[in-house]
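Action item from last week, closing it out:
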Amino acid sequence: MRTTSEPDEVKNQMRITNTIYYSLIIGMLLFFSIVIVLIQGKNLPSGESIDKIFIIVVPVFGLMMMVISRVIYNLMISKYEAGSSLIQKLSYYRTAKIIAWAVTESACFFAIIATMLTSNYLYVAVFVFLLGYFFLIRPSKESLIRDMQLNSDESDLILKS
């Protein structure tokens, strides 16, 4: 009889988390590529009035979303039940990560849309910065062990999977 904590199940759960993460990155990069192709060589109406607003709002919004994503993630991780099974902990970790990624992704999309509306490539720099942060908050076995405060048996099972 198999238990839910066997390495295959743990490996499958980590694969699901990684698949979601990389799908989000691919989606952002595809949208970014489409926007850049669409605005290349086009004479879009210069949105100087909107650009004056975005020049402040886009970087500030990006920084705010980075901080908010971290705060939400830390709050969620601090409220999980320590007596849960490893699979429940993995699921909770994934849920907290998805919410943090969604908050960060919203700032990425906002920067891309600002680029599309104004043709100002300054917002591409904001997007690249946010994408770099997105790479820093990727899921990993080490962050799972650290953040979920796994015991040594659970840690060994995660590291072996």
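Closing note: The chain has one domain: 7-160.
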